[in-house]
Each structure stands twice: as structure tokens, then as C-alpha cells.
Amino acid sequence: MNWRFFFSFLRQASCHHYHGHICNNYLDKNKLLYINKNPKILEESLRSPFSLLKPRLLKGCAKYALKAICLNTFPYCSSSSQPKPIRLCKEDCEVLESTVCESDFRVAREFDYLAVILPNCTSLPPKGSSEAKGCIKLGISELGMWKLLCALH
Predict the structure, then answer these.
(1) More confident residue, 91 or 145
(2) For the whole model, what pTM was predicted?
(3) For the chain, where are the alpha helices, taking DSSP H only?
(4) What are phi and psi of 28, to 5 degrees?
(5) Which residues make Cβ contacts (< 8 Å) with residue 56, sequence separation at least 6?
(6) CB contact set of 1 (below 8 Å; sequence gap of 6+)
């Protein structure tokens, strides 16, 4: 048995800078990322679905969705002494899913291959909880609410 390969899956959580390629344009290079799995395996698991999804997203959706996918896979790290992931803000994720990228995500979720990289908004901590403190905003909560209000009138 190749023990080195086996232990590459078991990884103690730590904070590191991003050294991949797929999410280069979507992650802040100055921030540390929460890594609890082999980053090369994470990067490789994104490669094919990301390259299939990216050209098919509507422009307004792509701007936020690709960043959300990268932040979901490689969340920022809260501290290097006691590493914890800083997750997407639930309300931003929900607006992304229900308004900004509604049709794009609906189609992507029909394919397990693509659905696996999309953020799961229901698993994110609710607004106001201690786990949600300092969550990552995509900057679409206000935009999404505006779109919803416009659609209702």
C-alpha cells in the first residue's frame, strides 16, 4: 500500500496562500486560505467542472458565481494559530442562487458533475450566528434584493 498517497488525504487544517491557477482571478492573493485537504487534489477536482461551467454562465452571474465557487472550495482562514474557515455569507449565497444565477444554477444542478462545485447555501451558518461572524460578502445582497423588488412590480 502506498501510505504516502493515503496520508495525503488526511491533513490537519492550516492556513496557506493560494498556489493554484483556476481561482487566481477570484481569490485575494494577500489572504490566507483554510486548507484541510490536499490543495492539489482540491484544485484538480475543480479543473474540469470549472472549465465546463465558466463559458456557459451568463455574464452577470459569472462575475459572482466563479468567485463563490472558489471561496467555497478555498475559504479564507480566520487565524493561523487556530485555523477556521471563513465561509460565504448565507444571504449573499441565497441571492446568488435564487436571483442572480437562478437559471444557470438550475441547469448546473441537473448534472452531478457540475453541482458538486456549486456552493450549498443551506449548509452555511445563518446571519447573526457566531459562525457567520465575519462571513465573506460577494456584494450582491443589495443587488439581488433590488432585482427581486423590480421583478415583483
Answers:
(1) 91
(2) 0.83
(3) 3-7, 39-53, 59-73, 90-95, 102-108, 112-115, 141-152
(4) -75, 115
(5) 104, 107
(6) none
